[in-house]
Specification:
Elements (H helix, E strand, L loop, with lengths): L2 H41 L16 H12 L6 H13 L7 E3 L1 H12 L1 E4 L2 E6 L2 E7 L4 H5 L6 E5 L2 E2 L7 H8 L6 E8 L2 E8 L1 E4 L3 E6 L4 E6 L6 H14 L4 E5 L8 H11 L5 E7 L2 E7 L11 E5 L6 H11 L4 E4 L7 E7 L5 E10 L14 H13 L16 E3 L5 E3 L8 E2 L9 H8 L2 H12 L1 H4 L5 H7 L4 H13 L9 H30 L3 H10 L2
Parallel strand pairs: 11-12, 12-15, 15-16, 16-21
Antiparallel strand pairs: 1-18, 2-9, 3-4, 4-5, 5-6, 5-7, 7-8, 10-11, 13-14, 13-18, 17-18, 19-20
Length: 544
């Protein structure tokens, strides 16, 4: 076949194919439109409006935002204005539905995740210089050879010494993605050094302390419920069982809650059978029950739980279940009173909405949520009012909602509608708290003194191998006290005329801060507990 004939044949076949496409194209368009209409119809149930071709009417709030942006006399920051409008809307709902701006979301998520990525140090700022006050064992800085007492003078190209700089800016410089590296120049004594640190995962521990007391009594303190809390709790519980644990004190004072499922998992370890732990229900959320699913590791044995006005949310779920089933004795003061469940929704600009979607209830059906109809200010003022109204000093002043009384299987009366009321009340100890003491805490004098004391006395302090050794044998001498009084005077704090009780309390705080330098929070808590009235009451009751 000639080249010319080949071209003619090719042209003929192309025309035939074009005719076939022209015949089938309308049919393909029709099928596509029908499928699209069908899918659109099926999606309608999840969209606002009722008719298929419904177009949502623009809300006045969007119209106002557009008018301000296009017509207002001065230039405005639309994003900040929108954030304010969102917050105003949420203020009309409940105190726990909150908008989280994009710049704050990472920190919030890190707290719930129980970790972030950084270099693994604790620092404080003295005289415009970053002082390393603690190095996390086996963390990135620890592996790079950074020591407590080192002073950072530069991070990458940014000088961080000799000028005003706040802690948030330092954190932003030190944190970053996992595996990335940061160059740091620091002083050790008078010697300048440079180190490169590879950022890694830094735990935000929810377990403050775990140790054995006397006579088979163990102690665990949790400060929140993150994604790591159950694992941390179980590691501590199993370690205590190996040391002869028979009775447990679980300290949830100041624990503001967190992830519901973590509290449920811990309750499952403490309650026998398939008992109900809690249930949730809301207008758009069907009732959901959370029950025990397995044999727990501490279903028997004495159990005491410590609570106060800072104990909230997931902590109250755990306490409520243990109290309703007569499994634990609750000691301390009335808890916060938060019985609302939030779900976090990520928004298009990387911000998030944490919206209340349900209420949770204890096994007996108690809702322990406090009233919030009078607004957010009145809601949070109720906590501070407990101090002014005498509730933190006397069990007779506790404002229980007597219109909602329930009975446990053992016949004990419990209340709903305003937090968890303890079985045994322990007053807040304010006898050793004066204006001078308040200034010490406000200005951080105790912590700063402990840090310098640690550096100056490191060889002597290293002889203490455990917090228990420290508690039993460390002595803060009278000369040490005089040195502390002199340092406090430089901050215009006079301690010459304080009472013996107040001096003892301050000394205990100093000792606990020194122990923190040695063993971080674990050491601090163990020392503080030696003079803690609530812990003393718990030990007394659990040993009976």
């Amino acid at each position: 076949m000639s080249i010319t004939n080949s071209k003619l044949l090719t042209s003929y076949l192309r025309k035939m194919n074009n005719k076939k496409v022209q015949v089938w194209l309308p049919l393909l368009f029709s099928i596509t439109m029908i499928v699209g209409m069908y899918l659109g119809f099926k999606m309608r149930d999840n969209m606002p409006g009722k008719s298929f071709f419904y177009l949502e009417k623009r809300r006045p709030i969007q119209e106002i935002m557009d008018l301000i942006q296009n017509k207002y006399v001065d230039e405005v920051k639309a994003d900040a204005l929108a954030d304010t409008a969102i917050q105003a809307i949420l203020n009309k709902l409940d105190p726990h539905s909150v908008f989280i701006p994009a710049e704050q979301l990472q920190g919030v998520n890190e707290d719930l995740a129980g970790k972030f990525y950084g270099v693994g140090i604790e620092f404080n700022i003295f005289n415009d210089t970053i002082n390393v006050i603690n190095v996390i064992k086996d963390g990135p800085s620890f592996k790079a050879g950074v020591l407590t007492g080192d002073k950072f003078i530069a991070v990458e190209d940014s000088a961080v010494a000799g000028k005003k700089i706040d802690a948030d800016k330092i954190r932003k410089l030190l944190r970053g993605d996992r595996g990335t590296k940061v160059n740091i120049v620091f002083l050790r004594g008078t010697e300048q050094r440079k180190v490169t640190i590879e950022r890694g995962a830094i735990p935000l521990n929810s377990l403050d302390a775990s140790y054995m007391m006397d006579n088979g009594v163990g102690y665990i303190k949790l400060n929140k419920f993150s994604q790591q809390t159950y694992r941390e709790f179980m590691d501590a519980l199993m370690a205590l069982k190996k040391q002869g644990l028979q009775k447990l004190i679980l300290d949830l004072r100041g624990n503001g809650g967190g992830i519901l499922d973590e509290a449920v998992e811990i309750a499952d370890e403490l309650l026998p059978g398939d008992k109900l732990i809690t249930y949730t229900e809301g207008k758009h959320v069907a009732k959901k029950e959370y029950r025990c699913r397995r044999e727990g590791q501490f279903e028997k044995g004495g159990l005491v739980v410590l609570a106060d006005e800072g104990t909230a949310s997931a902590s109250e779920i755990l306490i409520g279940a243990l109290q309703d089933w007569d499994r634990a004795t609750i000691i301390g003061r009335r808890s916060f009173g938060k019985g609302l469940v939030q779900e976090q929704f990520d928004l298009s600009d990387n911000s998030a909405l944490r919206l209340t979607i349900a209420r949770y209830y204890t096994p007996l059906g108690r809702s322990i949520q406090r009233p919030y109809a009078n607004g957010e200010k009145a809601y949070y003022d109720e906590i501070s009012n407990r101090f002014h109204d005498g509730e933190t000093q006397s069990a007779d002043s506790v404002k229980n909602d007597t219109s909602k009384i329930y009975k446990t299987p053992g016949g004990k009366k419990v209340y709903g509608g305003g937090g968890i009321t303890p079985d045994y009340f322990v007053a807040l100890d304010t006898s050793g708290f004066s204006i001078s003491t308040a200034k010490l805490y406000a200005k951080g004098v105790i912590g700063n003194f402990a840090y310098k004391f640690y550096l100056q006395n490191l060889p002597q302090l290293k002889i203490y191998k455990t917090p228990s050794d420290f508690v039993k044998t460390f002595s803060f001498t009278e000369n040490n006290w005089k040195e502390f009084v002199t340092i406090a005077a430089k901050d215009s704090i006079t301690l010459s005329n304080i009472s013996a009780k107040e001096k003892a309390d301050i000394t205990n705080r100093i000792n606990s801060s020194i122990a923190r330098q040695l063993w971080r929070t674990e050491g601090m808590v163990q020392v503080l507990n030696t003079e803690d009235n609530t812990v003393k009451k718990a030990v007394e009751l659990i040993q009976k």
